[in-house]
Design a protein that fits this description.
The protein has a single domain (3-267), classed as Nucleoside phosphorylase domain (Rossmann fold, 3-Layer(aba) Sandwich), CATH 3.40.50. The chain is of the alpha/beta class. It is globular, with a radius of gyration of 17 Å. Helix 1 crosses helix 4, helix 4 packs parallel to helix 7 and helix 5 (159-172) crosses helix 9. It has helices at 3-13, 35-38, 88-91, 93-101, 159-172, 192-201, 211-219, 244-253, 255-267, and strands at residues 20-24, 41-44, 62-68, 71-77, 105-114, 124-132, 176-183, 205-207, 223-233.
């Protein structure tokens, strides 16, 4: 895709520069239907040159500029996945647009499988770090300046933003987990043997997104935070098969808690 053409179209429709972009993962898109979003400016992915139609159930495929809890934000309902056959440049293109527009921070959310046996379905997990098991890196190829050729990933998920998410959870009376997210390509779910290996590597949750976007967001100079909704116990942890439907259902059941947490976080956001 041609990034400059995509950015020109995106910038032309942007009514303001958001402080924060929020990427809404599988089953967590309810926030895109809130009253503030309904009164905002909506931009379909297909209105941006090079952006295709969404193919995954649970991903609306639009960006919404709105004011949420008194702050200017962008809600990204849906994302492009590597397993759909999309190149990494497309999977991470929204991060390029946000960075060039001047967005300061990105909150990534996703549906994930719990690898840590002490977690429960429905838990929300703040991402403290990640393991890239997707077999590639979105920064491979010519360096897109002004980002550095070799971006530092010592702290991919901003410690202060993590603290603010925990503070928001405490204010809401919610319990949060915090752990390491491991990204695979999908679209097949993992095998029990893979889950045992991932647990040995230090993973607490596993999913099929977020990591490439987080890397590119850091390359663009934005602060990054992440929250996983643990929508199932990973393969082999329970005597039952895994389905995408249960992921969507668990996400829907967590939607109210997730929205309350995000609203409180946005209300007190300190960048």
């Amino acid at each position: 895709m041609e990034l400059n053409a995509a950015f020109d179209a995106f910038r032309a429709r942007a009514p303001f520069v958001p402080e924060l972009a929020i990427v809404l993962g599988s089953g967590l898109g309810q926030l895109a239907h809130c009253p503030e979003a309904a009164g905002g400016v909506s931009l379909s992915f297909t209105e941006i040159p090079g952006f295709p139609q969404q193919t995954v159930v649970g991903h609306a495929g639009k960006m919404i500029f709105c004011e949420l809890e008194g702050r200017k934000v962008l809600l990204q309902a849906g994302r492009f996945h590597f397993y759909e056959g999309n190149p990494m440049a497309l999977c991470t293109a929204p991060m390029r647009l946000y960075g060039r527009l001047g967005v300061k921070a990105v909150l990534h959310t996703n549906a994930a499988g719990a690898v840590n046996g002490s977690y429960q379905v429905g838990d929300l997990m703040v991402i403290s770090d990640h393991i890239n098991f997707q077999g590639t890196n979105p920064l491979i190829g010519p360096n897109l300046e002004p980002g550095p050729r070799f971006v530092d990933m010592t702290e991919p998920y901003d410690a202060d933003l993590r603290r603010q998410i925990h503070a928001a959870a405490s204010a809401c009376g919610q319990r949060l987990q915090e752990g390491v997210y491991l990204a695979v390509t999908g679209p097949s779910f993992e095998t029990p043997a893979e889950i045992r290996a991932f647990r040995a590597l230090g993973a607490d949750a596993v999913g099929m997104s977020t990591v490439p976007e987080a890397i590119v967001a850091r390359h663009e100079g934005m602060k990054v935070a992440g929250i996983s909704c643990l929508c199932n116990m990973a393969a082999g942890m329970l005597p039952q098969p895994l389905t995408h439907q249960e992921v969507l259902e668990a996400g829907a059941q967590s939607a109210a808690r997730f929205e309350a947490l995000v609203r409180r976080f946005v209300r007190g956001l300190d960048l």
